Amino acid sequence: IDAVVVAAHAVLALQTIRSRRIDTQEPMVLSVGIIRGGNRFNIIADEVTLEGTVRTLNEDVRRQVQQLMHQTLRGVTESFGARYDMLYEEGAPVTFNDPDLVREMLPTIERVVGKENVFSPKPQMGAEDFAYFAQRVPGFYFFLGVGNKAKGITAMIHTPEFDVDEQSLVIGTEVVANLLLDYLRHHAQPAAGTNGNGIAR
Predict the structure, then answer these.
(1) Rounded to two decimals, what is the model's pTM?
(2) What is the CATH architecture of 99-187?
């Protein structure tokens, strides 16, 4: 059994999960990023390792993809008389912003940076540890623009050229500080013996 040939068929078959097995309206990425196998150019490899990632905005879809990967790999390997083992590591869950908290705190952000500088980006497939916190308590995740075309700071994140306009750090700190202060003002419980403004009655 030539494991390289089996792996090649497996990679192609896995792509049909996105194109044929999942609702096309559901955002989902399934990508094989590493193929590792064989140790000599003239020797048939008996084992190949594939590594990849699954990204989605729907936890149900993520579970469905895992099942479909098993079905697909089982079908491909059995057709060649081979076998497979799959380790599916659950990464960060979907990052979900609490709608009520966003509605409450959006005016704060608009006040600090100007309403014209606030917009809702399209959903993205990035994985964030923040999602674990948001599963436990209401939260929201926002992006801070750190580029500056006038200074030539335009490279995207995860690239060797990435840089930050450090003035954006001041703005980000101001936004977060105001979010915390406004949230505490909205939700603070009056101390006993005060009128709610901290003034003793």
Answers:
(1) 0.71
(2) Orthogonal Bundle (1.10)
